[in-house]
UniProtKB/TrEMBL annotation:
Pfam families the UniProt entry points to: HpaB, HpaB_N
InterPro entries cross-referenced by the UniProt entry: Acyl-CoA_Oxase/DH_mid-dom_sf, AcylCo_DH-like_C, AcylCoA_DH/oxidase_NM_dom_sf, HpaB/PvcC/4-BUDH, HpaB/PvcC/4-BUDH_C, HpaB/PvcC/4-BUDH_N, HpaB_Deino-type
Gene that specifies this protein: hpaB
NCBIfam families given in the database record: HpaB-1
Keyword Electron transport listed: no
Name the UniProt record assigns to this protein: 4-hydroxyphenylacetate 3-monooxygenase, oxygenase component
Top-level lineage group: Bacteria
Domain HpaB/PvcC/4-BUDH C-terminal: 282-480
PANTHER family membership: 4-HYDROXYPHENYLACETATE 3-MONOOXYGENASE-RELATED (PTHR36117)
UniProt entry keywords in alphabetical sequence: FAD, Flavoprotein, Oxidoreductase
Enzyme class: oxidoreductase
One Gene Ontology MF term: 4-hydroxyphenylacetate 3-monooxygenase activity
Domain HpaB/PvcC/4-BUDH N-terminal: 5-275
EC number annotated for this UniProt entry: 1.14.14.9
Amino acid sequence: MGIRTGQQYLDKLNSMHPHVVINGEVVSEKIAEHPMFRNNARTYAKLFDMQHDPKYQEALTYTSPTTGDLVNASFLVPRTIEDLGRRRRAISTWAEFSHGFLGRSGDYMNSSLTALSTAKKFFAKADPVFGERIERYYEYARENDLLATHTLIPPQVNRSVPGSEQLGGQLAARVTEEREDGVIINGARMLATIAPIADELLVFPSTLLRGTPEDAPYSYAFAVPNDTPGMRYLCRSSLYNGGSVHDEPLASRFEEMDAVVVFEDVFVPNERVFMLGRPDLCNAWYAETGAGALMTHQVVTRTVAKSTFFLGLASELADAIGIDGFQHIQEDIAELIVDVEIGKAFIRAAEVDAELSGDGVMLPHWTTLNAARNWYPKIAQRFPQIIRKFSASGLMALPGEADVNSDAGADIEKYLQAKTLTGAERVRLFKLAFDASISGFSGRESLYEYFFFGDPVRMAGALVNSYDFAPARARIREFLARED
Ligand SMILES: Cc1cc2nc3c(=O)[nH]c(=O)nc-3n(C[C@H](O)[C@H](O)[C@H](O)COP(=O)(O)OP(=O)(O)OC[C@H]3O[C@@H](n4cnc5c(N)ncnc54)[C@H](O)[C@@H]3O)c2cc1C
């Protein structure tokens, strides 16, 4: 089949029967028509349609090596640095469409599956059958153009003990039975973004597991369709308030629902189980398979689009109300320029210094990407601050679309005009600033970017513990030894 159209994606979504709990309601059919999910599903449908648009098709697709159909380029196994560039162009084509506000566009999980499908040596440490299964699953996802999300962390009940010790080990999702034909899963995982509108859920390892026998039931990787019997999604309230694209320009399009995942006697057939009972390999899942590198390459590409959005917005606001010449405004705009350029440089450096893995995959340079993913969660917190600082009371003197088109329109034209904009144009721009800096949607975006790859505190620790300090320290010792 290969690339799907938006309509094919929506039709499949509407034919599935997940158990989605939201606002006291259980939604189990026609998910794509539900007011809480409709808009975001349609935004995702546009991404699928872009693959068929002659303007984007060359960037977004390549020819499947097995079927000859066109498939998404994020499934391309990179063998050369040019292949990495090919992948990046596809990723940035989607990221520019959403200005980086879609964190779960299909290319994110596709990147993970692409690397995993090649990591034969890694899977052979447990059983080569796992490597064969994940390659088949990757091909299934590629040829059916599936949209997947993932869920990684145990419930946040008591972080001073591992998941295996919470409530006697009864809370975190775990293998409760190993059968001839598969496994049974019970318990919960903390969060899965876009779960209600995804085709598939990847339940992969994340938090560090100890190598003790008690951790064995929590050491697994598997994938299930999002309407698998026994699986329930508990959604938060929506951050989209039902307004028009004029009044909620970001939330009305890009609000991605987050959901807790509950498993009750969920059966996972063997062919969808990719790791079992090996805490050591679960802990090495992202580092040793190359999945971490290809996923981070996707994320850094997406976040450059987002940084560019904030640079453009800040510059438009400053120009509109005539503050662009003030020094502290220019200092903040300079900060945004630097962020965009650093992001682009990270990608370029990671590609130029890419290396072939033991499985013959060209992986972008990990230390560079590791630095990028430690940097972005912090600098992204500045973006809404800068927009708030520039906009000030302009974020409150802000009637809506209905007012612009009412008798109040004359007042809006007169009193809410800007140096370079009519009243109606200014309202539209500041509505965007509002949604990017103080709306509930924007709050979630900041939280999302901060915790995207996990807790930044522990990520910093992981960076320090894995970094090769030898060359830098040798230079200090050499300098201390100099007598001249
Ligand atoms: C909007 C959003 C969407 C998300 N979407 C997904 C998704 O699609 N899939 C997915 O798998 N996950 C998702 N996550 C979860 C994300 O991976 C986690 O937020 C992240 O890993 C941090 O874990 P936590 O939220 O449980 O925080 P916790 O680990 O509970 O941390 C809470 C606080 O306690 C501190 N802390 C806790 N334990 C320790 C420790 N051992 N040492 C030092 N400090 C500690 C942390 O520094 C932090 O300040 C999402 C999160 C957000 C906010």
